[in-house]
Amino acid sequence: MAKPAVRSESPTRDRYTLPELPYDVSALEPHYAARIVELHHDGHHAAYVKALNETLARLEESRARDEYESIVGLEKSLAFNLSGHVLHSLFWTNLSPDGGDRPQGALAEAIDEFFGSFARLREHLTRATTTVQGSGWGALAWEPLGRRLVVEQIYDHQGNIGSGSLPLLVIDAWEHAYYLQFQTNKAAYVESLWNVLNWPDVARRFDRVQDYTLV
User: Fold this and answer.
1) DSSP string across 18-46
2) How far apart are the first and last CA of the chain?
3) Is the pLDDT of residue 1 over 80?
4) What is the pTM for the complete model shown?
């Protein structure tokens, strides 16, 4: 049986690009090694962006040909690589050579409301990040339906997260994020990152999500 004619569709272009780091690769030392930042950004994050654009091109071709035999794999690839790109893009801005300390203003008040204190949030997020089974992330997120802050575990790059929740602060718990510097000591890596967390960046994101409604 002849295959259907390919319908014309706008040419494929890169929908996503690798963001530039907002600081030099060595700016987070000694808390986060320059070589890890370089490999993590230029290697791992770049690979997710490349695979994401390739997946979009394959989906575009499938639509044009009305051929959906590979749809399950392509949709999984889209979710995995898009989520990886989003989370890494947040991760780089969540870090700063001027970071550390603790949040201020409305974000600090919300943390006290939903977690009891900053110390309790810190312990909760640390434990959530260090106990992810396999590869994943810890996240401080805004849940818009209940309008509350929550701590969530993310497995691989997606899943085990409330639908519609918006990540504000993410900590990468994949081995490639820390092994070169901290080896198997994930807890030491997470503890070190608290010294460079960019709370003004998290606060700006928190302010923006207040206008978002899910339903």
Assistant:
1) PPPPSS-TTTTTTTS-HHHHHHIIIIIIH
2) 46
3) no
4) 0.91
